[in-house]
Amino acid sequence: MVDAPHSRAFAERRGYRPTRSLHFQHLDLAKGPLPQRQPLPAGVELRTAADFLDDPRPMFEADAETTSDEPSDISTDFTDYDDWISHTWNNPLLDHRLSTVVVADGQVAAFTAVHTDGRTRYWSGMTGTLRAHRNRGFAKLAKTDSLHRARAAGYTDAYTSNDADNGPMLAVNQWFGYEICASEVRHVRKLG
């Protein structure tokens, strides 16, 4: 629920307790510069999710690993490939052409999955770097490429969200110039 006193009071009166905060962030793609694209390290290339349409399993494996490491109240364990295909890969909002994939030595190392409205709104639904490739700037490479291509395609407003405890991604998004535009607090209640 929205992080506001009346929302918190509403939840408290019903026996819910606050747990985690989440920040929604906005970047005006129509104004201001984006960070320049950086030279790629040796053995690293940028692709799009569209390059994996014939075999999305490497994307499933990357999404499963990175999502399991996200801060959350509920652990996430992707084990059902067919369900992921139906609900994530084939989501009509997922823009395979704007979703950038960093490939290092032939393997998916990082990615940013993008949802769009097909007109002006861009949503970074997930950006993740596999554990073996972290702290190499790959999340920035993926998002920089994707945001540049989104701007060139006419998208004007970029959005994302992060758990308040996800310091690395909050720092990456701040580096791009995203600003917090809203926050929410998750609440839980024991049943029974």
Shape: globular
How far apart, in Å, are the first and last alpha carbons? 23 Å
Structural class: alpha+beta
Spatial strand sequence of the major β-sheet: 2-3-4-5-6-1-7
Strand content: 25-35%
CATH architecture: 3-Layer(aba) Sandwich
- The run of helices and strands is HEEHHEEEHEHE
Helix content: 25-40%
Average pLDDT number: 92
Radius of gyration: 18 Å
Enumerate how many helices there are, as a single number.
5
Number of domains: 1
Can you tell me the CATH topology?
Aminopeptidase
Q: In short, what is this structure?
A:
The protein has 192 residues and is an alpha+beta fold. The chain contains 5 helices and 7 strands, in the order H-E-E-H-H-E-E-E-H-E-H-E. The chain has one domain: 3-Layer(aba) Sandwich (Aminopeptidase).
Q: How would you describe what is shown here?
A:
This protein is of the alpha+beta class and 192 residues long. It has one domain (25-160): 3-Layer(aba) Sandwich (Aminopeptidase), CATH 3.40.630. It is built from five helices and seven strands. A seven-stranded mixed beta sheet has the order 2-3-4-5-6-1-7, sandwiched between helices. The longest helix has 15 residues, at 138-152. The mean pLDDT is 92.
